[in-house]
Amino acid sequence: KAGVTQTPRYLIKTRGQQVTLSCSPISGHRSVSWYQQTPGQGLQFLFEYFSETQRNKGNFPGRFSGRQFSNSRSEMNVSTLELGDSALYLCASSQSGTPLHFGNGTRLTVT
Amino acid sequence: GIQVEQSPPDLILQEGANSTLRCNFSDSVNNLQWFHQNPWGQLINLFYIPSGTKQNGRLSATTVATERYSLLYISSSQTTDSGVYFCAVSTDSWGKFQFGAGTQVVVTP
Description:
The complex is a heterodimer of chains A (111) and B (109).
Chain A: E1 5-7, E2 10-13, E3 19-24, E4 31-38, E5 42-50, E6 53-57, E7 64-68, E8 74-78, E9 87-94, E10 101-102, E11 106-110
Parallel strand pairs in A: 2-11
Antiparallel strand pairs in A: 1-3, 3-8, 4-5, 4-9, 5-6, 7-8, 9-10, 9-11
Chain B: E1 4-7, E2 10-14, E3 19-25, E4 31-37, E5 43-48, E6 52-56, E7 59-64, E8 69-74, E9 83-90, E10 98-99, E11 103-108
Parallel strand pairs in B: 2-11
Antiparallel strand pairs in B: 1-3, 3-8, 4-5, 4-9, 6-7, 7-8, 9-10, 9-11
């Protein structure tokens, strides 16, 4: 079974731009969660989608948004990028009561 | 929200040594997972262990949910065990987890 796939692996953007990251979950997994990892704040929960609906949301500004499609693939978008948005963005998929499985992440650098 | 504390923050081991990593959490949880993050940033699920004891090769984990802690044991450590070990807890059954700050493990030859 294929794992969680995230694209792209690396991104370099300029302050003020926007970016879209993509995540394809493990086949059959309907929940997709997004996490941000930075050296200062560690791993922080961004949001979770299930059946195209946002189930949970972390404590991030409205510049961070996401969506899920009918095939369970998910995208997250960050608008008006700031230097502090530089981070490793990790996507995970799961089913109820099963382990989280993470993708390899997208490393975003904002200059 | 729920607080997750991991100890020690750093651990240096000689190859072949055993070690115990601890995770304390501040409230009742439905789910608990241990992850290993390798130097390339990939998070690998080690154990899904809301309670009880599990073993997988040289690694084992125990969660005592009533006392709000979990332990990860590494026996006969190898250099490939180096990396950061994270404990993550959740109060629901899906994808929203609170991560600890991690334990950085370095295994020297």
